[in-house]
Amino acid sequence: MSEEVEISSIDLRYEGHRMKNHGVEKKLYESIMEHGIREPLQGVEPKSGLRILLDGFKRLRCACKLKMGMVPYVCVGNDEGMGIIELIRISNQKGLTILEQAALIDELKNVHKMDIGEIASQLERSKAWVCLRAGMIKEMGEVLEREIFSGRFPVYSYMYTLRPFIRVNKIPKKEIEDFVCLLSGKGLSIRDIELLANGYFKGSNEIREQIKEGNISWGLNRLKDVHACADCTEIEQKMLNDLEIVQKYMRRVIFRIKEDKLNGNSFLLEANLLTGGILKNLSSFEKELRDFYDRSGKTTSNIFTI
Question: Which residues are 3's β-sheet partners?
Fold first, then answer.
């Protein structure tokens, strides 16, 4: 059963472990303004008597903006560590990102002194699943964690554009941090960030310096002009567009396909048919793509040497 509690009585120590999404929060604010808070906030209450919030930070911030003194609240237990475990267990329902899971697992390790095996056992997950997340927050560092969890920089862009630069291209983390700080809060699309990242880390000194100086629009327009392939024929430009679409949706599928909430019977039946069709064409697709990659790689390009 939920109860009405004073906002001032709620402990927000885990607010920094949950990502802000200003677009979602704006819609939630409008809904709460019209209908009130429909789903109670959830937290744990250790013997100290504190109400430690685990889920409902967006609702709470909206309530504060609306100057609501009381909010509906449900206590889910009195053990802080087990409360975190339960939140991760139901993370698909709560929409936790992989980095939010990583931050909470980091808390279990470093504050509650649980080892990987214990966490995996409690979550009913493999050690590999836990290990994958356990090192992510440390790998990011404070600067990236702050910008991403604040909602100022897209988590998708970090995971699938910038993280490979660190892990594969061996770009120093300080350079990644500088780039993120330059672009944070600018409202750029994922595609624009990807284009700027390639220009910044692989392009000319001119592009890099312009971005460093804060001339983001200039750099982006210059990169788009080059990327547009002005001297391409119509059929060549269509092929480039097709390749860009393939790359975009490959990344999107990779990002989404691991979500456990993709489990409806109708969905799985249809998805199985579609993936079967894709797999049948995968070998020939890969062969043709590799041949084309080798052939196109023999030409000289100025895309990132402006």
Answer: 73
